[in-house]
Amino acid sequence: MRKAASWEDLTDNYLFCSKAVDPQYKDLRHFQWHWEKGEPVIVSNVLECTSGLSWEPLVMWRALRHVTNTKHGQHLAEKTIDCLDWTEGEINIHQLFTGYTNGRRDWLAWPQILKLKDWPPSNLFEEQLPRHCAEFISSLPFKEYTDPHKGSLNLAVKLPNGSLKPDLGPKTYIAYGFPQELGRGDSVTKLHCDMSDAVNVLTHIAEVKLDSDQLTVIEKLKQKHLEQEKRELLGDDQDGETNFHQPSGSNEVAIANEDGISYGSELIEVDKVKINQGDLLFGGDASDGALWDIFWRQDVPKLQEYLKKNFREFRMIDSWMYRSLRLYLILQ
Prior knowledge:
Layout: E1 2-3, E2 14-19, H1 28-36, E3 41-44, H2 57-71, E4 77-82, E5 87-92, H3 93-102, E6 114-116, H4 125-128, H5 130-139, H6 143-146, E7 171-175, E8 199-205, H7 212-233, E9 258-263, E10 269-270, H8 300-310, H9 321-324
C-alpha cells in the first residue's frame, strides 16, 4: 500500500500497489474493489512480463524508419510543441530523439523543451511501430479490462460495428523535461479531467546532464521569467479584466524525459518507476520516473470552486480551465 493524501478524517487513505510478478496482482476481484471506488491502482515492473523489446529512442527511430521507407517513402518530420511559448513546429524524428538523449538549447541557452503532438496517431501506431505496439499490449495489467481488442470486460470492445467508438489508442507521449521545475516551459500535463479511465505505462526515461555554466544561465533566465510573470499578473485593468498571454498550442501529456503510452480504457496508473522498498508507504523519489497528481472524485467540486476564486493568479486561463489542459498546480 502507498499513502495517498494527508487527510485527517479519512480512514481508507492508501492506494493499492503491486508488482506484475506478484500472485496478488492476478486477483481481479481485489482490483475491482478499488476500481469501483474510483481509486488509481499502481502496478510496477509490468515490462518484466514482456519480451524485453527496447524502448530506447533510437531503437524506435530505426524501427519507424524501416517501416516508413518500406511502405510510404521517407517522411520522418513530425509536428512538435515548444513548451516555452506553445508554438507548433516541425522536426525530424531523428533530431528529436537525439535531443531527448543529449538535450537541446535555444539561442538564449534556455533548455528547449519539446514534445511530440499526437505521434503516431492511434490508428497508425500498429502500422508504424508494430513490434512496439504488440509489446505495449503484452505489458497491460488486468487485460480483462485493459486490452483494447480482446478485453472481455472492456465495454468499448463490445460496441457494435458502425458505432462511434472512443479512441482506445495506444498512443505515445514523448517529451523532454527536467526533474526540477523550470518555471516556464515545463513539459508537464496541465490540470484536466479525463473523460474515460486510462492506463499509463512508463517505458523509458533518460537524464540529460547539465554543466555548471548551463545551470548558471538557466537560473538567470528563471529570474527574468519570474519578473515577467509578475508583470503579467499585475496587468489587471479597472474593469476587472485580466490580460493573459494565450498559448498557441494545446498541452497534452508530458512527464520529465520519458516515453509513455496511454489509452482510454481503464483507471490504472502503471509505471516502471524505481520504488524504495523500505518506504512503500510514502513512495519513492519522484525524479526516478513519472509523477501523477490525481485528485479524488469527491474533491472535484472543491477544486472547481478554488479555481474560479483564484483564477487571476494563473497564467493562460480560459473559461473551462480544467478541460483546456493549460493549468498546473504546484505547492506554492
